[in-house]
Amino acid sequence: MSEQKEKRSLTPEEIKRVKGMGCLQDKRYEDVFNLRVITRNGRLTTAEHRAIAEAADRFGSGMVTMTTRLTLEIQGIQYDRIEDAIAFLKSNGLNCGGTGALVRPVVSCKGTTCQYGLIDTFDLSEKIHQKFYEGYRGVVLPHKFKIAVGGCPNNCVKPDLNDLGVIGQRVPILDLEKCRGCVRCQVEAACPIHVPYVENGKVVLDINECNHCGRCKGKCPFGAITGYQEGYQIYIGGRWGKKVAQGRPLEHLFTAEEEVMTLIERAIELFRTEGIAGERFSDTIDRIGFEKVQEKLLQ
Known about the structure:
Layout: H1 12-19, E1 23-25, E2 32-37, H2 46-59, E3 64-66, E4 72-78, H3 82-91, E5 107-108, H4 121-134, E6 147-150, E7 164-174, H5 186-190, E8 197-199, E9 202-204, E10 225-236, E11 248-249, H6 257-274, H7 281-288, H8 290-298
Parallel strand pairs: 5-6, 6-7
Antiparallel strand pairs: 1-2, 2-4, 3-4, 7-10, 8-9, 10-11
């Protein structure tokens, strides 16, 4: 830890003030805090990494930890050095925050580079981050609002356990005229959740049971799957923590990025205007009713 100064008790107002700046009190000490540094959905340049390491050595304990929201925390900064640390990080292009009843930093999986990724998660999540985390920084909500972007139905970042989650989709289009009813169906063999099966000489594929992962792409040698509808599934009302809620999918496949951005804006605005202070978005949806919320978002 940086050079120790005389410890002093802090008032609740002082603790609240620095919490709003992204500083969480270390429960072991009265005047020591952990400073949250915002990343671009877990991504940083090597220069930014070096700046964070230097800040940890100069102002903190020399230790940096990771959070579940893909931000970093510099550990062990004394209260009187917080603003110097924030100024140093800002001079290196880094911002602090990620607390309060606001849109929180957006998280995403590595779908852009992952073999299973169906959408460019880096690009989309950064656009969401810029517009709704940075752009809505002054918009106070009834509670925190978390957004996650998943590249495919593997759900590695748990989009359906966020207030709003986006998941890449690849919905198969089937032409049974081209199906030969193979003894070993390659579409059936490729499905990781065992949805398709051959019956009476034709493959059966329940599109409602299919999770739209696209693993069957190019597998049928006779072209029974003629193509795919690419898009985004949006879940609303998820949460984890003391009370867990499974998000529910909207009954619409979004096929354009602009549609996704518009829907997110509508969801945040609905929460801002119709949510009650202290309740999460899942509570707002339960109180109003999912069908009514869906209608408001999709109309």
